[in-house]
Specification:
This protein is elongated. It has two domains: 29 residues; 100 residues, Subtilisin-like superfamily (Immunoglobulin-like, Sandwich), CATH 2.60.40.1710. The chain is of the alpha+beta class. Strands 2, 4, 5, 6, 8 and 9 form a six-stranded mixed β-sheet that branches. It has one helix and nine strands, in the order H-E-E-E-E-E-E-E-E-E.
């Protein structure tokens, strides 16, 4: 009896999760980010280059065109890419790439989050740039006489 109850509970929980995700996605014909298969924090110093690649998919039933842009947003600094036009047929995918450079005013210890802007919407992604100290002091040698 316990095994049946446990299996029934797991099946019910999985069904609720699946239905919840399908409801969230149905409101958003354009699923902004398929490339959110990763996430993390990338350490950079001010003025250092970076590359952002995002894979998009049209989850709708008709061809669509969107203006898409990205930004890294922090309390102390921001960086914005150049907007790109994206046209996708139903269920098709395409990867867009932006080349960027951490601003000179990005303060050490600050953390900026990647945000995607499209149509009249935006979607914060789980990618962050963490600004580390560019100079590091290391003891190269010592001598005592």
């Amino acid at each position: 009896m316990k095994k049946k109850f446990t299996l029934l509970s797991l099946a019910l929980a999985a069904s609720i999760i699946i239905v919840g995700f399908s409801i969230l996605d149905s409101d958003d014909q354009f699923m902004a980010c398929l490339a959110c298969d990763g996430s993390g924090v990338v350490n950079k110093i001010s003025c250092e280059d970076f590359i952002v690649e995002i894979r998009f998919r049209n989850t709708g039933e008709v061809k669509g065109t969107w203006s898409v842009n990205i930004a890294f947003e922090a309390e102390s600094w921001t960086w914005s890419g150049t907007p790109k036009n994206l046209t996708l047929s139903p269920h098709h995918k395409k990867t867009l790439t932006w080349d960027g450079n951490v601003p000179e005013n990005a303060s050490t210890g600050s953390l900026a989050r990647l945000v995607v802007y499209y149509a009249d919407s935006f979607k914060p992604l789980d990618w962050w740039i963490y600004i580390i100290e560019g100079a590091e002091l290391t003891v190269a040698s010592s001598r005592v006489r």
